[in-house]
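Lab notes, practical 5.
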Amino acid sequence: MSWDPFRELRKMQNRMERIFSDLERESLPTQKRSKPKNQKKGETTPFTDVRDLDEEVVVTADLPGVDKEDIDVSVEGNSLTISAERSQEESEESEGFVRRERTLGQFYRKIKLPSDIKEDEAAAKFNNGVLEVKLPKEEKEEKESNKIEIQ
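Output from the prediction step:
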């Protein structure tokens, strides 16, 4: 086995990366890592996926612990807005917590959609804490190209 002068340095670097990764995961609430410009104080941002498919845009959002009745979804132009509220359970006591990480309060997310959509045909469903919104795309008219004469 040949001697590698950098072997110990690489091992130390890997250990440090694991330590900082664990530190970040433990110290930062997962729902507050990024904050959109239009987010109000006290609101958290749900994690979302946006898929641009052939005939529709599908937005999936994680809203754990939220009741269906506490979710508002709206579409205006090429923006989708999701807002919800998760309130503290009545039976839950506020004393004795060693750690409290679950997010309570307002969720808000405004998403710019990649395509124009048919607002009146949008549909949403909510199951097991996951909201899925299907937004059919507006059909684009094929325009003929204009030939530009070179002078």
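Observations recorded by the TA: The helical segments are 7-27. The radius of gyration is 23 Å.
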